[in-house]
Give the backbone structure.
Amino acid sequence: MPYITQLTQPIQQFVHRLNTTNNNDSMPEGEKIKVCAAFQRGDDQTGVWSIKMQRKLVESILMGFPIGSIMLVKAWGAANSTNHFILDGGNRSRAMRDFMSGDFSIPYVEEDGSKTFKTFEELPVEIRAKFKNTNLHLQQIRVLREDPPDTVARMFTNTNTLILSLK
């Protein structure tokens, strides 16, 4: 049975771990998070969520609604310096990253009642702070030596095949 660590982490820290490139020395290897195409619908940069779905995720975060756990995995035999891979939550992770990077805007109601769209940087500082400091629930999963060789594949299949069929 895999070893699972439960933790919370502010969105800003999670997105930093997700955005870290291989040549960035500020983040130690093993702490970085990678979106792995083998586990996700889409690659590191793109997923299957529409802008509407991404906006709904941001709205949920700002409203304090739960958005579910993000599952990170390291296979048995991986060194401690091996990065975590997202087993579940790739589209949520990309949506948070892309919103903070300014890749899409969200509906916003101005003080005078007018409606507009704003990117992350255009939002009032208190809204940006609320978003960045919202804690995510993470499950860091470490597959153990005694686990069957197909453990990661079975976890992935059991978690990720109900909404959209795999390609």
Remarks:
- The first strand starts at residue 3 and ends at 10.
- The two ends are 28 Å apart (CA to CA).
- The beta strands are 3-10, 33-34, 70-74, 84-88, 106-109, 115-118, 135-142.
